[in-house]
Amino acid sequence: MFTRESLLASGWYRERLQTKQSHAIALWQRQDAALPDALNLGDRLSAARTQLARVSASAYLAELVGTIGADPFQAQMP
Questions:
Q1: Rounded CA gap, 76 and 7, in Å?
Q2: How far is residue 60 CA from its own chain's centroid?
Q3: What does the alpha-carbon distance between residue 55 and residue 32 come to, in Å, rounded to a whole number?
Q4: Rg for the chain, CA atoms, rounded
Q5: Which terminus has fewer CB within 10 Å in the chain: N or C?
Q6: Per DSSP, which regions of the chain are E strands?
Q7: What is the tens place of the pLDDT at every residue in 18-29?
Q8: 65 to 3, 17, 29, 56, 69: CA distances (angstroms)
Q9: What distance in Å separates the CA atoms of residue 61 and residue 69, rounded to the nearest whole number?
Q10: Nearest alpha carbon to residue 45 among 34, 55, 54
Q11: From CA 22, how far away is CA 11, in angstroms rounded?
């Protein structure tokens, strides 16, 4: 039987959280790469780099606990 505890402890769920983290890292890397080309976006660039650092940290996985994560079999957005 499925319980919340068994789901949160499963490798399947951990993989979903790690996939979600990978997607978040890729998103903020794209933001980091795109924003320097725009004019007067220093604050946005700083915010994007802050978010990239946050989602890249191992603590981000703990923030994802309780969420659905992301499907590791679905392609990541370009």
A1: 24
A2: 8
A3: 13
A4: 15
A5: N
A6: none
A7: 999 999 999 999
A8: 14, 8, 23, 15, 8
A9: 10
A10: 34
A11: 16
The pTM of this model reads 0.57
* Dihedral (CA of 15, 53, 31, 34) sign: negative
The answer to whether the CB of 69 falls within 8 A of the CB of 20 is yes
Q: How far, in Å, CA of 3 to CA of 13, rounded? A: 13
Looking at this protein, which amino acid is placed at residue 44? R
Q: Judge whether residue 39 has pLDDT over 80.
A: no
The answer to whether residue 1 scores a pLDDT higher than 80 is: no
- Residues 19 and 33: their CA atoms lie apart, in Å, by 21
Quickly tell me which residue has 């220093």 as its tokens: 42
